[in-house]
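ok so for the tutorial part 2 we go from a plain amino acid sequence to predicted structure tokens. step 1 is just haveing the sequence, like this:
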Amino acid sequence: MPDAMKMTKKTRKNLKIGLLFALPWLIGFAVFTVYPIIASFYFSFTEYHVTTPPQWIGLENYHKLFNDILFTKSLTNTLYYVAGLVPLGLLVGLILAVLLVQPLKEIVIYRSMIYLPSIVPAFAFATVGLWFFNPYLGFVNSFLSLFGIEGPMWLSDEKWAKITIILLSQWGAGGTALIYMAALKDIPKELYEAAALDGATRWQMFRKITLPLISPATLFYLITSSLAAFQIFDLPQIMTGGGPANSTLSYVMYLYRHAFTYVNMGYASAMAWFLFLLALFVTFIIFKTSKRWVFYYGSK
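step 2 — the prediction. this is what the tokens look like for a chain of 300 residues:
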């Protein structure tokens, strides 16, 4: 019994020391994360313009959302971004990963070249993108003209503006490729050798071995990329400002306008919580369906 008491005292002492070292982080987490979340939830039920005290209005902000034309437009644009960015990013990242695991002497150089663009700041990247897709002097239309093809107006055309931003976003596919490279290298070579002995083709091995065994990486990608796509802001804000005719206005851009341009924090908080619930729902659906297609090698 005394030994047990000593262990208890030691455990309590270690706990106090651990909490003491973690205290700076806990304070920062409480002040800069927990409090803003609680405050924004409260403000979403108020009319709050920062300079005046918040006034409780109940669900009025949420009712206004669905009567707001720009809210509907920004939400539709964002869903378009999600539907374009997520599958295209998966495809590009996976193709790059397959190419970058090939046994070449200079493969390290290629990997560096593919990954480096993903760490370029958004402003610099957007500036390059504006020149790249300039309808008159840009590289893309100049290249298309060599084949007698007249390129579109890209960012100046409502039909092409969102597509252009989706294409430009693939500049950062190196991060996705890095994740898939790690997953591909983790697949036992014996499985491919056994499949080859059974007469399986490369496509059959890719479909029956590679895709199932990298499915955990795909699950991770789908969740993180979907959340990032819902929050897309930098590229459309810098490159188009939401134009032309609000065709590239994303949800977070519109939220930003209400929060920091119109100083309508109550309405912006309601928008933020709606986005949170929407993203939570999509994440839940992905997790729920993942049981059918995610395979963990070696698990029972």
